[in-house]
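Q: I have 194 residues here and want to know how they pack in 3D. Can you give me a structure?
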Amino acid sequence: MHPYSIDTEERKTILLFLAILSIVLSWSFYKILNSYQIVLPWWIESPSVLFIYGLLFVLFDKWAWKYFRKIGLVRTPNLNGEWNGYLKSSFTEHSSEIKATLRIFQTWTKIKILLSTDHSISHSESVSVIVNTPEGAYLGYQYINEPKSNAVKTMSIHRGTTRLLFKERANTLIGEFYSGRDRLNFGSLDFKRD
């Protein structure tokens, strides 16, 4: 997985909130121990602010952000899961639908996108998410594609870009791709999450 960019200010705000919460929790733990006159042995430290912050960050990054997304406090779209659909390519003059599967692995700060067909597999190298648009969130990424052994001889490893519109209510990703100078190929993609 690799980091991705997003056009919201929520990362600054949430990281600040986690820092303040860490200070409050560490101070509260210290006060509770003092009120009960509990003295920890020398080999046990009370949880530090940094320890609590790290723990809160890991919990938020992996799981809690999805809950906060549901209640509207986080705007980062949850794209996790397996998306099934097809692509149409200029290589076949857009005449046929090529079955494709898009697998997205995402935390609040990291993501990995894998697209596989019968003849190749591609994976993301850099990703950006744009949420401040009236039509929905956009997922844009650069990828490297590696052909499988059964691919046509003219297909070679190549790079490309993809831009997909996320329609949350319909649970779809629809957009276009184009590949680098060796392929000079472009097309459309249409996916629905299971």
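Q: Anything worth noting?
A: The chain has a mean pLDDT of 91. The longest helix spans residues 10-35.
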